[in-house]
Amino acid sequence: MEIIIQPTAEAATEIAARIIAKLLREKPDAVLGLATGSTPLRLYQKLADMKLDWSRATTFNLDEYTGLPREHPQSYHSFMWENLFRHINIRPENIHIPDGNAADIPAMCADYEKAIRDAGGIDLQLLGIGSDGHIGFNEPSSSLASRTRIKTLTGRTRSDNARFFGSPENVPLHVVTMGIGTIMEARTNLMLAFGENKAAAIAGTVEGPVTADNPASVLQFHPSAKVCLDEPAASQLKRADYYRWVYDNKPDWQSW
Ligand code: F6R
Fold this sequence. Notes:
This protein is 32% helix and 16% strand. By secondary structure, it is of the alpha/beta class. The chain has one domain: 3-Layer(aba) Sandwich (Rossmann fold), CATH 3.40.50.1360. The radius of gyration is 17 Å and the shape is globular.
């Protein structure tokens, strides 16, 4: 894992934006996996400002609530259009977001997996992390081999997301999410985490045992996982000085 610790979320986001911009320049038909939530908001703003060419790119979002109309302001369809898609030149037919209102959820999930395969797999998957270590909406105890499917949110995640819905009870109970096995097949995983609220989950992800109790820890098995952190999110890492040292001494050919 490559651990990149920056003084601020702004600086960490800048690095993530450079990684994605480089991919899109080198591979204009790249397949990107995207995330929602507070963490990538700055990144999407930066990517929009960079005026990159998305005309040949394809995207797959990690997850969506079930039972929320697409037009609901908190649906991840609305989130993605509002915060990224309407600002870039991506073709609508190249955008994929799980359909949380599908009549047959398992069939929709199987089709989603097939669409990822048919697109040639995901080149770079962007990830946030829940305070309980979830990636996508793979809550603790999720199978580390799971595929796209329906999941039930924990009380903690519903409380964390209550800020978007007014109260925890208004946060949908069920979601559709790419599985951990799906995420692990992305060629690169790029995780962003900001704030002290994420510090324990990040310490477990990077330095803890690999365990379904902290689903993000499975990234220790991924051949190309990068984790961009601000100082508060990095504050419980035992080897933070080493990660800074590695980053500061990267050979030129490895920098973005
Ligand atoms: C969202 C997603 C989630 C979030 C996580 C953190 O698509 O997959 O795993 O990344 O819940 O959310 P924020 O960024 O709001 O703290």
